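User: Hey, quick favor. My workstation is busy. Could you predict this chain's structure for me?
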Amino acid sequence: MANDQSMTKNQKLIDWVNEWAKICQPDSVYWVDGSEAEDKKLFDQMVASGMAVKLDEKKRPNSYYFQSDPSDVARVEDRTYICTPKKEDAGPTNNWADPAEMKTLMLGKYKGCMKGRTMYVIPYSMGPLGSTIAHIGIELTDSPYVVVNMRTMTRMGKAVLDVLGNGEFVPCVHTVGAPLAPGQKDKAWPCAPIEEKYITHFPVTKEIWSYGSGYGGNALLGKKCFALRIASYMAKQDGWLAEHMLILGLTNPEGKTKYIAAAFPSACGKTNLAMLIPTIPGWTVKCVGDDIAWMKYGKDGQLYAINPEAGFFGVAPFTSMETNPNAMLSCKSDTIYTNVGLTPDKDIWWDGIGVDCPEGTITWKGEKYTKGSDVQVAHPNARFTARANNCPAIDPAWEDPAGVPISAILFGGRRPSTVPLVYEARDWNHGTFMGSVVGSEVTAAAIGLKAGVRRDPFAMLPFCGYNMADYFGHWIKVGAAAPDKNKLPKIFNVNWFRKDNTGRWLWPGFGENSRVLAWVFDRCDGKAKGIETPIGLIPEAKDINVQGLKVTAEDLKELLNVDKNLWKDEVVLIKEHYARFGDRLPKELAAELEKLEKNLA
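Assistant: No problem, here it is.
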């Protein structure tokens, strides 16, 4: 593979690549063009080196299997830094480091870090090429695994450089942090030890520097690093929103479509909702995106959203034809599987896939599974990287450069009690308050955290690129700046995880969640009634269609119940949560909390 800068005339980009090549000292520099031939060549190289296994062509066409190092399996939140000039600008929810000190430390690590490897130059667009909501990044990496994943997850290659011209880009540097001495044999999954991993962000200069991990969001820098941490800061500067939200198109039996964005912490059914198959007759759901939404006001004063990604980086375990058929069909071909089980006939397996694990399956740690053994076959955070346009339920407008108009925004978390099945905010500021107090259980997507419930405001706790109190304030400002307040999306909170006092789930979830979405749709259409409660508006029981469900009238009453005593306890917890932000907490949110307390009294 040869060095070829002729793909661009952007001198700033060429100089930047040359400067980093001098620091990292790769054997060669390769400018990625994004072609099929290049993709195949990279996969062939990884199969030959033992990094990848090609799966059975009949069962999984054009698909590959990877095992990561056991120390490199998830986002490493305690090794993730926001480097702002002042510590208070990173805020209490982020790890802060001084930008100059961090750069000095990391430049020491980057020196010669790519010896024996190729430096790949990846031009990529977050969002459809040419969209006014999209932005371009360039990632330097020494990992061919990152290149092939970025090809699925973003619009990548020569076409991006053509759109970029002499324009600005977000510079992203990544290395696995494992230089090779002459003649040294490479590992199947090179990476640095956990204490050597750094995922650092410099919001003011819009830079991302990642060192030592080859996995997921630590290495695919367009994902959480750019699309959320850096983009959230860019959005604050320029008056738009970069959010950890799915986007779906909901069509009612009359053929009318509304678009909904929704934010849930991990393991709360986000991908399932994005690809939902409604169980109520006449309703359909189409997927625009399953993870990230960028939103800006259009000329008509409405908020429009794009999915900045081009693929799905889905959690594999417990995804099945029963729980999420659209996700299963999306990853049937052209898919990269990481840390799932590899069956003897070169297929894949994970917990909850819907069939028993075949004898002799290789686990994510390279052990052999025998029936009855308690080895962990797939890591709980095992992933599939699949193309969005392979999803049978992809929305026809998913690549519309203008984005889709958002009618409603949902927040939600895993709450066994207190929070009802659904309630609606009275206005934008109240909705911002709801988003700021979202709470949920901890999952395997983030390591190094104690199990239990934690607040995850806007599902952005690990992803906000600046002080979260200022981020709340930015939401207030975006609402205040609406060209037409009547066109602002309505805001709701949903909770599919309510239990009764015996621990029984009260709501069946999955496709049945369409019954709640139908009420949300009708509220946006001005057709359904909302009943005032101390916390917001809830549906009349008759407006939630439970026909054909085992949900009794008592269950539904409990699902919609707002227990004042439990909410008084919640207020105490919210005050504790807000105390972290000190005097930076927007006064509007303090007022909303006061209002809630008065309503409960």
